[in-house]
């Protein structure tokens, strides 16, 4: 079945540095990918919609200059957390809709990236 | 905002059926009901979805009321590995580009 691969699964970085997270659709093409953030004991919060070949669409309150999204190809989207601070520590999850199957095929999620900023 | 409401948490004894309710009173005629679960520190996992008929797969059954305003996810023989947060989502189709908003979900505890 369709799989979304997310890398790295865990990253620890120092305050002020930047971190890049990759999201790949392994056996299907995704013109759109979604990036979520999740704090402990909370639900997934949509950060932005990544669009292949065009600019990402950010949700209200999400800083586009801090969370840089690049959808370079039909199978790869990246999220870069720039000048990371401890409050950016969170669980970041990407997802991609569809696959080879039907109109209402499920949304596929990566396994998430645990970011810790020290 | 999420279009669904779910109980915050539920307990179920191991080996028994776990029945998780979801209210979606404003569901549109072309919206499906999707269920996902999230085990701690993992990405959400697809479980099942349906439009108006009841559905069953190897993981669970989905019962949708006739008026489609609510549904129930049934895990027929719960195991400890089913402990997770379960999310009910209504949506026209998951492979559209429309954004997907998660509610708070139900935290299911399977008790040994």
Q: What structural category characterises the helix and strand content of chain A?
A: mainly beta
Question: Could you tell me the number of beta strands of chain B?
Answer: 9
Helix content of chain B: under 10%
Low-confidence stretches of chain A: none
The biggest beta sheet of chain A reads: 7 strands, mixed
Number of helices of chain B: 0
Which oligomeric state applies?
heterodimer
State the distance separating the first and last CA atoms of chain B: 35 Å
Broad structural category of chain B: mainly beta
Radius of gyration of chain B, rounded?
13 Å
Q: Which series of helices and strands of chain B comes N to C?
A: EEEEEEEEE
**What is the molecular shape of chain A?**
globular
Order of helices and strands of chain A: EEEEEEEEEEE
Give me the secondary-structure topology:
The complex is a heterodimer of chains A (118) and B (112).
Chain A: E1 4-7, E2 10-13, E3 19-25, E4 32-38, E5 45-51, E6 57-58, E7 67-73, E8 76-81, E9 90-97, E10 107-109, E11 113-117
Parallel strand pairs in A: 2-11
Antiparallel strand pairs in A: 1-3, 3-8, 4-5, 4-9, 5-6, 7-8, 9-10, 9-11
Chain B: E1 9-13, E2 18-23, E3 32-38, E4 45-50, E5 55-56, E6 61-64, E7 70-75, E8 84-91, E9 106-111
Parallel strand pairs in B: 1-9
Antiparallel strand pairs in B: 2-7, 3-4, 3-8, 5-6, 6-7, 8-9
What does this 3D model show about the protein?
- The complex is a heterodimer of chains A (118) and B (112).
- With 118 residues, chain A is an all-beta fold.
- Chain A is 0% helix and 51% strand.
- In chain A, strand 5 (45-51) and strand 6 (57-58) form a beta hairpin.
- Chain A is globular and about 40 Å long.
- The model of chain A has no long low-confidence stretch (mean pLDDT 90).
- Chain B is mainly beta and 112 residues long.
- Chain B is 0% helix and 45% strand.
- Chain B has strands at residues 9-13, 18-23, 32-38, 45-50, 55-56, 61-64, 70-75, 84-91, 106-111.
- In chain B, the strands form 2 sheets. In chain B, strands 1-9-8-3-4 form a 5-stranded mixed sheet, with no helix packed on it. In chain B, strands 2-7-6-5 form a 4-stranded antiparallel sheet, with no helix packed on it.
- The N and C termini of chain B lie far apart (35 Å).
- Classes of the chains: A mainly beta (118), B mainly beta (112).
């Amino acid at each position: 079945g369709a799989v979304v691969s997310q890398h790295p699964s865990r990253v620890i970085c120092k305050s002020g540095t930047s971190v890049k997270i990759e999201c790949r659709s392994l056996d299907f093409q995704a013109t759109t990918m979604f990036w979520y953030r999740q704090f402990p004991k909370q639900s997934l919060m949509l950060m932005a919609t990544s669009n292949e070949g065009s600019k990402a669409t950010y949700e209200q309150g999400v800083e586009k200059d801090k969370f840089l999204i690049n959808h370079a190809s039909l199978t790869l989207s990246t999220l870069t957390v720039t000048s990371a601070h401890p409050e950016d520590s969170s669980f970041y999850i990407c997802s991609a809709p569809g696959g080879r199957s039907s109109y209402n095929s499920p949304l596929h999620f990566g396994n998430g990236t645990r970011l810790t900023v020290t | 905002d999420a279009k669904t409401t779910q109980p915050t948490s539920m307990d179920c004894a191991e080996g028994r059926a776990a029945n998780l309710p979801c209210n979606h009173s404003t569901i549109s005629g072309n919206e499906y009901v999707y269920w996902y679960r999230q085990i701690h520190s993992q990405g959400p996992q697809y479980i099942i979805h349906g439009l108006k008929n009841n559905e069953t797969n190897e993981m669970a059954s989905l019962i949708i009321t006739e008026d489609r305003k609510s549904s129930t996810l049934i895990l027929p023989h719960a195991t400890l590995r089913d402990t997770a947060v379960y999310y009910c989502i209504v949506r026209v189709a998951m492979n559209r580009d429309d954004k997907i908003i998660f509610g708070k979900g139900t935290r299911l505890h399977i008790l040994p």
